[in-house]
Amino acid sequence: MKVALGIAAIIGGTVMGAIGFYLSFGNLSAAGSRVFGFSPEDAPFFAVGVDVAIVTCLVLDLFMATIRTSWPLLRFLAHVMTLASVYFNAAAHGAITENWDKALSHGLMPILFVIGVEAGRRILVHQAALPADHDVIPAHRWLLAGRTTWRIFKVMKLWDIGYGEVVTRERQRAIFNAWNEYKAEVAKAGLEEGSEAALARLPRKLEPFGLTVDEALALPDRMAREELRRKQEADKRARELELDKERAEHEAEKERLAHRKEMAALTADLTATEGVAGAQARGAVAEAEAKAEAQARAASSLSEAMESREAAEAKKRAAEATAKAREAEQRVAEADAAKVAALAKAKTDQAKVAEADARVAEADAKAAEAKKRAAEARDATARLVRRAVEAEDFANLTQRQRRVRIAARMLLAAGEREVTNEEIAAAIGVKSPGTASEHRTEAVALIQGGYPEFDPEVPPRTEA
């Protein structure tokens, strides 16, 4: 049944559209020439332009919906063009105010065609699950609730939210406000929440928001569940916040303990250092006391051991002099060894410098030889070019032949470097890269033929 109805609708819509366009074409052609001042030759184009504009706007709107980037302006423009077509059709046979019957009959077919296209569009959007015009506020809402519709429009444009989502939010907010008003009214009336008298007020209170009686009576349970959910979420957030605080305190305590540990280690190190310093000081005092005591004992026996002491000191001084002499001899030997090593290193460095000088001299000789060969090559090239130019002058070559030889000499002078067509064009005085490419081809053929030693187009001097 669905397929049969769809086929019937397509056939009927096609027939209706064809008839509408046929009649509209005739009426618009007549109106264009009689009413709007078009010439008889241009009037049919005016008719086709109006009807094609309607179809094009509708097709573009449907295509943009398929790629999920709907533009409501296209449908609005199609409807405006439809109204214009209705007016043009109605005005084709006189003033509209004087011929209402003719105006209605001539404007009927365009209106029916647009209605059929809109119906087809809705079917296609529904079947293909294409995005509908969710971001467009219906016109009837502006008429029925202008103030709230303006608030919805403002939220849509300020926060870039779709029409459906904004409407859902506004409806939920309005139901929540009505629920709070209902609870205040029940409390003011002294009724118990959930009683039959209190519940009887709900359907009438929530009627403006499109809720059925069952939905209105189920609202207290729904609100209780929502309140419980919000409370649970609030408790969960409170627990998470408490855990975050505990974690922060734990981290702070860890940092404090680490700081204390570091300070304790520093204090222990300082104490140990102070203890060592004190022990050293005590040891120094004891040592000084011992020395003083020894000096006292030595002073007491100085007179007795003077002679033996002088002898011991003389022996000690002799031993020290001998040790100093040996140390001086060792330093002299080390200095001699270092001098010998320095002389050997200096000889090695001189040999390396001489070798480097030899390499530099050899490189200079090679560079001079290369410069000499390059100069000889340039001289040879200049002689060849002079002979080629003299031969060309002698042969009275055409301008194209001369340009070909200039290109050949450029290719020969470039060697392995690639010469571009732009360079050839600049050298021979042409602007087209294609012309330069043709000269390049002829120049390559000329070089392959033996140019510049042999030029097939230049006769020998003996023949002249």
Short description:
The protein is an all-alpha fold.
Q: Which helices and strands, and how do they pair?
A:
Blueprint: H1 2-34, H2 43-66, H3 72-90, H4 100-127, H5 139-144, H6 146-159, H7 163-189, H8 196-199, H9 202-206, H10 213-217, H11 219-300, H12 306-395, H13 399-414, H14 421-428, H15 433-448
Protein described:
It is a single chain. The protein is mostly helical. Helix content is 81%, strand content 0%. The chain has helices at 2-34, 43-66, 72-90, 100-127, 139-144, 146-159, 163-189, 196-199, 202-206, 213-217, 219-300, 306-395, 399-414, 421-428, 433-448. Helix 2 (43-66) runs parallel beside helix 4 (100-127) and helix 6 packs across helix 7. The mean pLDDT is 78.
Query: Helix-strand pattern, N to C?
Result: HHHHHHHHHHHHHHH
Total strands: the figure is 0
Average predicted local confidence, pLDDT: 78
Distance from N terminus to C terminus (CA atoms, Å) equals 102 Å
**Proportion of residues in extended strands:** under 5%
Residue runs with pLDDT of under 50 for 5 or more positions: none
How would you classify the helix and strand content by structural class?
mainly alpha
Q: What's the tally of helices?
A: 15
Overall spatial form:
flat
State Rg.
56 Å
Question: Which percent bin holds the helix content?
Answer: over 70%
Sheet with most strands: none
Protein traits:
464 residues; mainly alpha
